[in-house]
Design a protein that fits this description.
27% of the residues lie in helices and 28% in strands. It is α+β, with helices and mostly antiparallel strands and 81 residues long. Strands 1, 2, 3 and 4 form a four-stranded mixed sheet that branches. The two termini are 15 Å apart.
Length: 81
């Protein structure tokens, strides 16, 4: 979760996280900003593909993480930008 997902330099930070030693098989990275209890904005760096405009599993995982940490309600819109 970040203050402004649209401001993240995804092309720079995405590969650094994807290839970090903590992830020997690499990883996807989602940057999420909660706008309000019903809406969040998400940007994705996908392992092996780079910047991508959609990820169902990333959206679900981000929504669940936001719910568990009480950032959003149980029904939430995930806006992929």
């Amino acid at each position: 979760f970040v203050p402004d997902a649209t401001a993240v330099d995804l092309a720079k930070i995405g590969p650094l996280v994807e290839h970090h030693p903590s992830f020997p098989k690499r990883t996807n990275v989602e940057f999420v900003t909660v706008q309000d209890r019903a809406n969040m904005v998400m940007r994705i760096w996908e392992r092996g593909s780079g910047i991508t405009m959609a990820s169902g599993s990333g959206s679900c995982g981000s929504a669940l993480a936001a719910m568990i940490t009480d950032r959003v309600d149980r029904k939430v819109n995930v806006h992929l930008v």
